[in-house]
Amino acid sequence: MRARDLLTDFPTVTLDTPVLDAARLLADQDLPGLIVVDANGLPLSVLAGTQVLALAVPGYCQDDPALARVVDEAHADTFLSSVAGRTVREALPREARELPITDPGATLLEIAALMARTRSPLVAVVSEHGLEGAITLQTLMDRALTS
Amino acid sequence: MRARDLLTDFPTVTLDTPVLDAARLLADQDLPGLIVVDANGLPLSVLAGTQVLALAVPGYCQDDPALARVVDEAHADTFLSSVAGRTVREALPREARELPITDPGATLLEIAALMARTRSPLVAVVSEHGLEGAITLQTLMDRALTS
Asked: Least crowded by CB within 10 Å, which of A44, A112, A144, B35?
């Protein structure tokens, strides 16, 4: 079994997508993450669901739990509204890291190792023709358990 | 809104649960992760779905992509069978890290910051009475988007 046998179509976002729209897409379709593509449709980044959430959480609250605690309940409830104007471009993590991207020939074990290493429940599959689709942790687990 | 308003019952595993059973539980119920509890039902660890997968992927394949690539397709398909005899105890990550565990009084922003910081789509909620339940990224996103 190869990556090409496990593909599903997957919605993408761009650098110009508002963070709020990205969050809504993730929540409405119950996705494990999102693929950020460039103008040619090639993946620039693959964000796990928790990283999409991180786009919307003020940095000072992520770094210091005590600072999140002092925000009162009413403001805490509406934290998403504070990112209303931001796009994915402004919020994308800047650190260099291995991206969960593979080719159509990757085996089940390679995909599993990539997901485990990058802690991403979503892997983008790219061939010489471009983005072919994605493989989710759910799909991978289902296939691994029946193999 | 507080953690206590967002709780859902959530299945747990113990240190003696076979890795294969943990993987099956995750896949069959499409869970974002698993809570590992001790004999008193208190959480010892909270594993994201990709960390449950990591329990089942040989360490050498996670560390070195080239080594995963040389395993032939037939063996790669059945990698899960190689962990048939292992339990969660033997496979649990040993590194000290902040666990995604909070109290019933945590606000939506605190829970979001905790998920973002620990990169866990699952947070366990513990009170003086023990494990109260869990909050998933999906639940949190749904509530944050309607607040």
From this structure: A44
Inter-chain touch B68–A107, beta carbons under 8 Å? yes
The rounded Cα B69 to chain-centroid distance in angstroms is 27
Q: Assess B115–A contact: CB distance below 8 Å, yes or no.
A: yes
Contacts of A63 in chain B (CB under 8 A): 117
| Token digits of residue B58 | 């040989």
pTM of the model: 0.89
pLDDT at B7: 93
B24-45 residue pLDDT tens: 999 999 999 999 999 999 999 9
For chain B, list the domains and their CATH numbers.
3-146 (3.10.580.10)
Instruction: State yes or no: pLDDT of B100 exceeds 90.
Output: yes
Residues 55-114 of chain B with CB under 8 A from chain A are 56-57, 61-63, 65, 68-69, 71, 73, 75-80, 107-110, 112-114
pLDDT confidence of B96, banded at 50, 70, 90?
Answer: low
What three-state secondary structure class fits A14? Answer: coil
Min Cα–Cα distance to chain A from B42, Å: 22
Block residue for tokens 């789509």: B121
